[in-house]
Amino acid sequence: MSTDDRREKGGGHTGTLLLATVLGVGLGLLAAPQAGTETRRALRKRLAAMGEEFEDELEELRERGGRARSVVRERAEELRRRGKKAYESAAEELESLREEIEDEEDGGASPVATALTVGAGLAALAYLLTSDRAAPARERVREAAATVRDEAEARWDQFQRRRGNGQPTTESGTRIDAANSIPQGS
After folding, report:
1. Is residue 30 part of a domain?
2. In terms of C-beta density within 10 A (0-12 exposed, 13-18 middle, 19 or more buried), how is residue 176 classed?
3. Does residue 166 contact residue 179 with C-beta atoms inside 8 Å?
4. Is residue 138 part of a domain?
């Protein structure tokens, strides 16, 4: 579609709109129940009343907006203060932890830290031994302990058998002399 076609089509719409407006105003004037001056006076009163209502509503909105704005500003300031305080507290705690770590690296753990660690370990052990929720963990610990005990016994028996530098021993632990095959005391 060319530019001229568009102009003609757009001009047609504008003309139709203008014609419809003129016809609407004309029909309104013919069908009006009052004289033009009375209608204009009534319209002015209605518009003035609507303007006053609009101004009242607008003023109320401004007041609400002002109050809301101040509440939001106060809350934002409070949150900013809290955030700053939390940040400073965390920074101090971090610095304190760094100093503790440096102290531990320099000279070992403090007695208080050791006591707290032992206390925490005892509390965890008490929980493990008494809590119903820890029953599965207790069972796994028992199984692991039994496995370690069995392994330790097997290694001890191996050690007892080999303690004579590869020489065989009797059940009582005495070495057997391979040359004479006579048991000797150890």
Report:
1. no
2. middle
3. no
4. yes
Select from 56, 71, 101 the last residue of a domain: 101
Q: Which residues pair with residue 167 across a beta bridge?
A: 164
Q: Quick one: 129 and 158 in the same domain?
A: yes
Q: Is the pTM of this model over 0.85?
A: no
- Residue 117: domain span: 111-164
User: Tens-of-pLDDT digits for all 186 residues of the chain?
Assistant: 555 555 555 556 788 888 888 888 777 767 767 777 887 788 788 888 888 888 888 888 888 888 888 888 888 888 888 888 888 888 888 888 888 777 666 555 567 778 888 888 888 877 777 778 778 887 888 899 999 999 999 998 888 888 765 555 566 656 555 555 555 554
Asked if residue 130 is part of any domain, the answer here is yes
